[in-house]
Amino acid sequence: MKRAIRTAGRWLLALTLAASGTGCARGGDPAPEVPARTYANPVSLPDEWGEYGLGDPFVFKYDGYYYLYVSTRDTDAGIKVWRSPNLVDWHYEGLCTEDPLTTAAYAPEVRYWNGKFYMYTSPAGQGHYALVADSPTGPFKIATDNFGRTIDGTTFVDDDGRWYFYYAGSGGIQAAPMTDPLTVEPEEARPARTWMGGPRGRPCSSAAASIT
């Protein structure tokens, strides 16, 4: 008899929980819609560099479209670019440059300035070149000699219009002022801090430096 009572009690508890759960679902916010498509890392796109994939991706927005540039496989020249209206559907636009100097072009980045598109890349991590084009899909042409600064360079334009070139150096993240989009000055910017701020201001790296 006790066993029957315990069994009945378990069923009653289960039904009560099910009913309460159903009530919460009906009375609460509607269940989110399941997206028609999902993705999983690593992201892969048609026409990527084979086993090299989409190394060092850089996304640049211009005139309502997003442009994706990636590092070039060590054995090849040229830089690939894709275009997307929504960051989901990507169309391969081909090589935006085929210059031999872009063999193993690492971490290409693009900035639009006064009607021109400027690209900065570090072939095999051996210094940097700047390239210029009239369109985000190129053709980009080499516009400078190799101006060094190791690898993984990027530009920053301050509110006062001054340009800076950041890069990965022996002392961590380093920076140098620029007189224009194609000229990096020889001196280094003076470090103001030896850390990089993380969430809620907490340091997340001791190898970075900001500038004043």
Automatic annotation (TrEMBL):
<dbReference type="Pfam" id="PF04616">
    <property type="entry name" value="Glyco_hydro_43"/>
</dbReference>
<comment type="similarity">
    <text>Belongs to the glycosyl hydrolase 43 family.</text>
</comment>
<keyword id="KW-0378">Hydrolase</keyword>
<dbReference type="InterPro" id="IPR006710">
    <property type="entry name" value="Glyco_hydro_43"/>
</dbReference>
<feature type="site" description="Important for catalytic activity, responsible for pKa modulation of the active site Glu and correct orientation of both the proton donor and substrate">
    <location>
        <position position="152"/>
    </location>
</feature>
<dbReference type="InterPro" id="IPR051795">
    <property type="entry name" value="Glycosyl_Hydrlase_43"/>
</dbReference>
<dbReference type="InterPro" id="IPR023296">
    <property type="entry name" value="Glyco_hydro_beta-prop_sf"/>
</dbReference>
<feature type="signal peptide">
    <location>
        <begin position="1"/>
        <end position="25"/>
    </location>
</feature>
<keyword id="KW-0732">Signal</keyword>
<dbReference type="GO" id="GO:0004553">
    <property type="term" value="F:hydrolase activity, hydrolyzing O-glycosyl compounds"/>
</dbReference>
<keyword id="KW-0326">Glycosidase</keyword>
<feature type="region of interest" description="Disordered">
    <location>
        <begin position="192"/>
        <end position="212"/>
    </location>
</feature>
<protein>
    <submittedName>
        <fullName>Family 43 glycosylhydrolase</fullName>
    </submittedName>
</protein>
<dbReference type="GO" id="GO:0005975">
    <property type="term" value="P:carbohydrate metabolic process"/>
</dbReference>
